């Protein structure tokens, strides 16, 4: 009896994915032993990868973006409980409309705060002329405030006493001084609307914009508060005080230097003229 020899398995049955080149090893999707850092690399990638934000699929609804205003706080508080009259005071005034159709501004409230932001003087003022427009939307002044208001001349006298010999800080100070019918030495005024580093080129900036940028605080959202505005001006000044005072000293020094040179020149010219007359 002849035994039937077993036939060699066909290529199709033995290897469903034949390798045409037996000398080269087939690639594998699994990390090979030749790449020991593979697992470590993948774990690092998973660790540092950020999950995709969830997308709202409701039709017509837009994804909200964070606003820079959300990072701002509201209100300014005193930095200390010291209510003394410091060498530097900040001032702010609120006006009402008088005259024809209320087009002329008149003082209705004045506030002074010290370097710590504490109120040292705050009074409502009864204008000399009849009030036509209270400008409440901005000034916050109402008819009821006039019942407790002081006469203009009394307030003016007191403010003049308080600021005499002191540095005053404010925003657009010429408006406040004009409303008070007062003047103040230029060397003792610090106006946040005039200080060059706080301006945008030749353009003056609003106090609320400076407060938002420098103090990260929102002010003047509705009616203006002279206490808050005076504090804002003072705190902005405090932030720039060192550079501000140095620049003023340099300006005065340069001005005095030019003045001395001019006097010397005038003196030399007069001596020359006198010598010519003698000869």
TrEMBL record:
PANTHER family: RNA EXONUCLEASE 4 (PTHR12801:SF45), RNA EXONUCLEASE REXO1 / RECO3 FAMILY MEMBER-RELATED (PTHR12801)
Protein family according to the UniProt entry: Belongs to the REXO4 family.
GO MF entries: 3'-5' exonuclease activity; nucleic acid binding
Main location: nucleus
One Gene Ontology biological process: rRNA processing
Region of interest: Disordered: 1-38, 50-78, 257-279
Cell compartments where the protein resides: Nucleus
Job of this protein: Exoribonuclease involved in ribosome biosynthesis. Involved in the processing of ITS1, the internal transcribed spacer localized between the 18S and 5.8S rRNAs.
Keywords: Exonuclease, Hydrolase, Nuclease, Nucleus, rRNA processing
Domain of life: Eukaryota
Name of protein: RNA exonuclease 4
Protein's UniProt keywords contain rRNA processing: yes
Chain intervals with Basic and acidic residues compositional bias: 50-68
Bias kind Polar residues: ranges: 69-78
Pfam families: RNase_T
């Amino acid at each position: 009896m002849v035994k039937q020899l077993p036939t060699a398995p066909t290529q199709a049955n033995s290897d469903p994915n034949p390798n045409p080149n037996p000398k080269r090893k087939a690639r594998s999707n699994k990390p090979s032993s030749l790449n020991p850092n593979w697992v470590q690399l993948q774990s690092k990638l998973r660790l540092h990868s950020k999950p995709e934000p969830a997308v709202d699929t409701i039709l017509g609804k837009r994804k909200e973006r964070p606003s820079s205003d959300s990072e701002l706080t509201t209100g300014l508080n005193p930095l200390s409980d010291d209510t003394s009259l410091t060498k530097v005071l900040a001032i702010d005034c609120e006006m009402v409309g008088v005259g024809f159709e209320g087009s002329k501004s008149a003082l209705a409230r004045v506030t002074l705060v010290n370097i710590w932001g504490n109120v040292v003087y705050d009074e409502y003022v009864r204008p000399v002329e009849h009030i036509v427009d209270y400008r409440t939307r901005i000034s916050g002044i109402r008819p009821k405030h006039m019942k407790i208001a002081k006469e203009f001349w009394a307030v003016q006298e007191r403010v003049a006493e308080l600021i005499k010999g002191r540095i005053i800080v404010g925003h657009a100070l010429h408006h406040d001084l004009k409303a008070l019918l007062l003047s103040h030495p230029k060397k003792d005024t610090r106006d946040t609307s005039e200080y060059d580093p706080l301006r945008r080129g030749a353009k003056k900036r609003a106090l609320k914009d400076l407060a938002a940028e420098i103090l990260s605080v929102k002010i003047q959202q509705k009616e203006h508060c002279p206490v808050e505005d005076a504090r804002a001006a003072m705190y902005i000044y405090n932030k720039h005080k060192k550079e501000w005072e140095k620049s003023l000293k340099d300006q005065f020094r340069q001005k005095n230097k030019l003045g001395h040179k001019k006097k010397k020149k005038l003196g030399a010219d007069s001596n020359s003229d006198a010598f010519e007359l003698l000869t």
